[in-house]
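Friendly challenge for the regulars: who can give me the structure tokens for this chain first? No prize, just bragging rights.
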Amino acid sequence: MKFPGEAAERVARSLLDQGPGTPTQLAQRLALTSAAVRKSLSALTADGLVTGADRAPYGPAPARRRGRPSQVFSLTARGHAALSQEYDDLAIDALRFVAQESGRGAVARFARARSDKLMAGLQPCGDEPVAALEQLAQMLTTAGYAASVEHTGEGGHAVQLCQHHCPVVDAAAEFPELCEAETQALSDALGLHVTRLATLAKGDGVCTTVIPIVQRKALA
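First reply, four minutes later:
Bragging rights claimed.
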């Protein structure tokens, strides 16, 4: 679909690549005026591509301030779909064929092989867990997931891995084996128990995985 203007598309892509933001933050990211950003956000909201809230859909709640807080804008499922890559339809057709010919077990095996390949080269957390997770976020971003690491504010014992985009979100909606395999492969690669709280495939605003950075997964 076409976006309501070049500036609006730039705003939408910033929300995809760098995550939710206030109008002021978006203006700083894109070197646009606040008026231009607000106009774009208004048009994107009217088209159902972005939505505003009092806080981002992940991470710790913002500290309370005097006056009315600035709204934080993020992409909707429709917005993600508008920016998604065209090969998602091909992925769905391929997975449907595999499921029909060989069963859902074959889909699960494919999903695990794909996830293991995605995590290849990732180092276990060891003594520098945050560094390992930042490496992971960069790897996922390179693969098209627009990932970032957000601190939860819960005593420094956990972080959230946020994936703002999924290049195969429609395929994952029909075949949850993709998300399940990715979560398990992430846990195995890091040597940590991880918990997936939200996914784009289920209509959430971001894929969110909580990762403890103190408790290590017991070795078998």
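The radius of gyration is 18 Å. The first helix runs from residue 6 to 18. Your move, everyone else.
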